[in-house]
Each structure stands twice: as structure tokens, then as C-alpha cells.
Amino acid sequence: MDKPIAIIGAMDEEVEELRESLTDRGPVCTPLPNLPLSTGNLGRQAVVVCRCGIGKVNAAMATQYIIDQYRPTAIINSGIAGGASKKMQIGDIVLGTSSMQHDFDLGEFGRPRGIIPRLPTSVFQGDPNLLEVAFHAARDMLPAGKVHQGLIVTGDQFIGSKEKKEEILEFFPDALCVEMEGAAIAQVATANEVPHLIIRAISDLADDSAPQDFEQFITKIVPVLNRILARLLIRWVNRTRSARHSANR
Ligand code: ADE
User: Fold this and answer.
1) What is the Å distance from ligand 1's center to 183 Cα?
2) Hey, how many other C-beta atoms are within 10 angstroms of the C-beta on 244?
3) Ligand 1 in reach of 84 Cβ (< 6 A)
4) Which of 64, 76, 92, 174 is most buried, taking the most CB atoms under 10 A from its CB?
């Protein structure tokens, strides 16, 4: 079997449709009590689809497990997010050029918010090749103004008030969106030298109406995200096969 790309989402609502669209789908396995994983193909790309659960610890555990067990060539974190920047609207797509943990706080030791001491970096860079392919895949489906690239910030908090959002923006003025797993997946992927990309669709604006918007829009937005992922994988397969072909000539 070709080495897979891992697609990790936090909630069933974020991975169910993908799981159902797998061809040659293996049985769902749950190596850890709350970690359903499926293998199969999306188009011509071998994938492992995993529902990791909500939050950074669940996300980190799942990522390390998948890397150890399946040796994926790349990891994609797909899901929804709250818009942070004023540019964001519900339904927009954000591709993470980088990610940070907005709730990592060693301020008492003079460290800026989000900085993890004694690591080579606290800013986890999305893979440029995946980013390029994802951008074209998203632009195949959406107008330019709805596809954004930039910083994604992650924390173990659902952001549902203007005050909390503004506090995060004070520390991370460039943040495009907030979510709860991306930078944890990115940190583990980076530590293992596996390329990764976070792709998020905006379900709410991380303000007082966030809980209701989130519920209302998740089912409308995830199918768009999944169509972008399918296109991304087609482009990715074509790109890696033509790179291999030229290398063999
Ligand atoms: N995921 C979707 N919306 C979110 C929000 N407002 N805060 C954190 N994670 C989210």
C-alpha cells in the first residue's frame, strides 16, 4: 500500500462524510478507546481518516499515534473555526501558513503569549507545497475574497465573546481564526518532521452568537471543506506522480 496522507478532524461531524466517501475502506478501528480511524482511498490517494476528539491533548495523542502506526507522508487537519480577523466571514476558508497556541502562557517569566520555552519554535509552519495545492483547490470552488492564508491560533477554549476574541487579537493581531486542535497537530507533526497543513472553514465569528452560529452552519460548511479536500488530493497525486516521473527520466 502507498503511504497515506492522514486527515484528522476533531468531531464526527467534521470527518463522517469523508469516511463514508472512502473507497476500499477498511473497518473502523479504535486503537485507543476514543479514537476511531479508517483507512481507504480518496480518489487515487491512500488516506487515514481520524476523529481525534476536541482539544489539544486529544489532537496531539492522535497525531503521534498515526505517525507511529501509519508513517503518513503528510498530515492535514480539517475542520471548522471561529473567525478572528475582521476580514473573516462565515463560510470563508483559512489555510494555515503557520499556527500557534494562544493559551500557552508563561507571562510570569516574561515570555510573550504563545511562546513555548525550550523548543526550537513555537510557530509551526504549514507545508508550502500543501499550501499551494490547497489554495488552488479552494480557489477552484470559491471566489478570491473567501480564501485566506495566514496565522491560525489554537487553544483549549471555545471563543464565544467579543471580549475574549479581542484579548486574543491583542496578543496575536495577525490571527485569522481560532480553533482547538490545529497547532497541537502541527507541533507533533513538526517534531516528527512530517509536513502538515491546517485547513479550516469559518463557522462563526467567535463572538456572542458563536455557539448558535456554530450549530447552524457546521452542516452547511463541512461539505464545502470536503470538496476542497477531494480536489486538493487530486492535485497532490498529480503533482507527486509527475515529480516522480521527471525524477525517473
Ligand atoms: N471552532 C469553531 N468555532 C470556534 C470558536 N469560536 N472557538 C474555538 N474553536 C472553534
Assistant:
1) 14
2) 9
3) no
4) 76
Grid-cell match 491546517, residue found? 198
Q: How confident is the model at residue 1 (pLDDT cuts 50, 70, 90)?
A: low
Give distance in angstroms: CA of 16 to centre of ligand 1.
19
Is the beta carbon of 135 within 6 A of some atom in ligand 1? no
- Confidence band of 89 (pLDDT split at 50, 70, 90): very high
Q: How confident is the model at residue 83 (pLDDT cuts 50, 70, 90)?
A: very high
pLDDT single digits (tens) 181-193? 999 999 999 999 9
Q: Is the CB of 203 under 6 A from ligand 1?
A: yes
Q: Is the CB of 179 under 6 A from ligand 1?
A: yes
**Torsion angle of C-alpha atoms 11, 13, 47, 145, degrees rounded to 10:** -100
Q: Is 14 in the pocket of ligand 1 (CB under 6 A)?
A: no
pLDDT of residue 120: 95
Map out the domains of the chain with their CATH numbers.
5-230 (3.40.50.1580)
Grid cell 497541537 is found at 184
Neighbours of 231 (CB within 10 A): 19
Residue among 214, 216, 222 to mutate when testing ligand 1 (max atoms within 8 A of CB): 214
